[in-house]
Structure formats: structure tokens, C-alpha cells
Amino acid sequence: MAHQYPGPPPEQPPGQPGQPGQNPYAAPDGGRPAEAGYGYPQGGRPGEPGYGYPQAAPPPPVFAPGTPPPPPAGLPVQPPQATGLALALGDIAVHGDTIVTPAGPMPLKGAVWTATDMSRTEERMPTHAVVLAVIFFFFCLLGLLFLLMKERITTGFVQVTVNSGGRHHATMVPVQSREQVMFVLNQVNYARSLSV
């Protein structure tokens, strides 16, 4: 395998790296690193980094303390908005005078909020009530009163939709109790009051 070619390539004189008996990975003569070869990005001029190499980042602009940086060129200047999260329902959030959704930002003023209760509540006798009724039936007949125990289980979602600025977004908020349903409905009522 070592003598695959009959002789050295024409551009490589005998005795240079690549000949049998010499380390092909050794540094070239003179201590300089080898030139970039095949597979390395090539620069336009010597000493210039090639495509794909990290470039030096431009220095960050310096602003006077307390002054906001100027907006990038070509973008419209917007007045500063009130900050802080006023309300969050699922993936709908209200920041200042803007409703932020995955469908995009919407104006808060004039928004139409809708909430639909899609949950269901089941009432059933818990397992521990049946066990206690059987155990205490043999001791006294008062054990039958355990059969009057009921538990309510709420499962489902409350669908919250918002329409504003020609956009529409709906989200489903999961609920596990009637209190959570009332909380979400009260949050929607608060959002309606902010939209007026």
C-alpha cells in the first residue's frame, strides 16, 4: 500500500514529507503551519479569513447612560409601551396595551373575548365510602350512612378566544375543579374590562 504510486508527485521533490519513512503529519520545515488544503475555506487575499471561519465581531455601540439606543434603520419608531404582564390565559398574554398570541400581537382596545365552558362534572360515590360502609355495617347500622358520601370530579377545558385587529386566536385552558373554571371565567371578564 505504501508504494501505490511509482514515484513522488511531480510537484513534490524527493525527501519532502509524503515519502516513505517520514512522518506525514509533522510540521513543515521552517516551523510555519501548513497552508490550508482541500476542504478548508479559502480567503480572497493572503491573511484574510475564508468563508466559514469566525469573523471578528464589530465593537458594540456606546450610548450615554440613561438614553435608549436608537432604533435600527428602516424600522418604524413605536412609542414605548407599558411594561408588565397584566393577564395570561393559556398561550394568550396581555402586556400593556397589546395582546400577545402565537398568531401575532393584537391591539387590546376593542378586543372581543369569548369563554366557553367545555368541562364536565361527575358526581360519584368514592371507593373508600363503600369500604367503610361494609366494615361498619357489621358493628352498627350507622355504617350505611357512609353510602351518602359523594365526590365531584371536574375534567375538561375552558376555551378562550380573542378577536382583535382582524386576527383571531383560540386556546384551551385545562381545568380540574369548578373553582378553576370560575377563575378562568373571571380572568376573561377582567380581560374584557381592560379591552374597553
UniProtKB/TrEMBL annotation:
Q: What is this protein called?
A: Uncharacterized protein
Region Disordered, residue ranges: 1-78
Question: Pro residues bias located where?
Answer: 1-17, 56-78
Listed Gly residues bias regions:
40-50
> What are the transmembrane regions?
129-149
Organism domain of life: Bacteria
This protein's species is: Streptomyces yunnanensis
Cite the entry's keywords alphabetically.
Answer: Membrane, Transmembrane, Transmembrane helix
